[in-house]
Target: Major facilitator superfamily (MFS) profile domain-containing protein
Amino acid sequence: MISFYLLTYSWPFISGEVTYKDPSKNSTEGCNTEKFDWCEDLSQVNLWLYYILFVGVVGIGFSTMNVALITLYSEILGPRRQGTLQGIFQISSASSRMLGPFVLGNLYDAYGPKMTWKIELGMLSIAGAAWIAFYRKMVPLKTDKDGDDTELKDRSIKSKKEGNNNGVTNEAFDKTD
Model:
């Protein structure tokens, strides 16, 4: 994903100018300099490069990434409330797909494609940094033969020995699915 945004960004060193809309013609082709102040700051990205990367990264990469992400999330959840937590995960995903075009569309109108690309790169960088930082914590949930969370149970037993429950109760071990 990051390679898509880096390779299709309108870098200032790219040769070629964006076509401007001719106000005397009734055409939708070109960047409307009367409506958008940012038209003059753009460099034209190679359309073939953009189309090939779009099909490869967005068309193929998104579907593959979605399946892998849902599988990883399911493995990390373990025997917890899969249905509820997967539902919340899908709601957040669907909400971002509904709100994203509205938010990024308004940013695009106000600041142009460079700002949209910068925000996308920033979000991907933050997600990548979080993934790297928490990589060792993304492990499948360890359970005992009854399906109870062994790590949580160990912390609860240790806390009871120390006389401190730290908010851990036996309710955490009830199976509600």
